[in-house]
Amino acid sequence: MQTLYQVPDALWNKVATIFEPKVRRRKRSLQVILSGIIYLLQNGCKWRSLPPQYGDYRLVWYYLNKWARYGVLDQALHILGIQLRRRQGRSGEPSMLLIDAQSVKTVAGSGDEVGYDAGKKVKGRKRHLAVDTQGTVMAAGVTSAFVHDKTGARVLRDDVEDRPSVRTIVADGGYEGTPPFTASGRIRWILIARRHTHRFSPLPVRWVVERTFAWIINYRRLAKDYEKTILMSRAMLVMCAIHITLKKLMTYF
């Protein structure tokens, strides 16, 4: 019999008050609901194929949608990021972030904000990430793949500017020109030019964010964009970042 994924109690205790500020009796605990979302991310199954041990798939979807709309996922990612950085012996808030974008294909039936990235020859959506120097996601956003990297970076603006410790952002040449945001001059942008070469060579420092994208693509649900709305597409991306951060935290227990 297959062993289904379960969020460990030690890790659930780290986020329980975020996902469940007021404890009450439930038919399915929110720990089980969260485990079901992570199971779907890892295995890439359809919502209707979610194992019944996690409860009705519509209930699991409801909570993911609710947490996305009310900013619960963003709050969890922020708090976990601070905890992880402190466990790593660093300050809770980063002073430098690395920004990049990745276009992914959508599937038939995908709803709003789907476009064509002519540079990558991909029809779908574009994921935008801001990570610290260890690859921990600090901010995430989703746009149509048609949107230019620099323009799309504006979806990260609020999350990045809400971190007063951030002084530097590192990006590649695709962000050349007027910075998407500077927090009134507080944030300095450093652009790393790509070398013209016929073989793959990761850019200095920037390989960190590229590695984070590789971690995300390992989740089957995120190998493509299966979601009908940008809201749920971003919810899946942020939930994935939360799980990656939780797994890193687990190494310290």
TrEMBL record:
PANTHER family, A to Z: PHP DOMAIN PROTEIN, TRANSPOSASE
Domain called Transposase IS4-like: residue spans: 93-242
GO molecular function term, any single one: transposase activity
Provenance organism: Flaviaesturariibacter flavus
Protein name, per record: IS5 family transposase
Domain Insertion element IS402-like: from-to ranges: 8-75
UniProt record, GO biological process: DNA transposition
Signal peptide range: none
One family name in Pfam for this protein: DUF4096
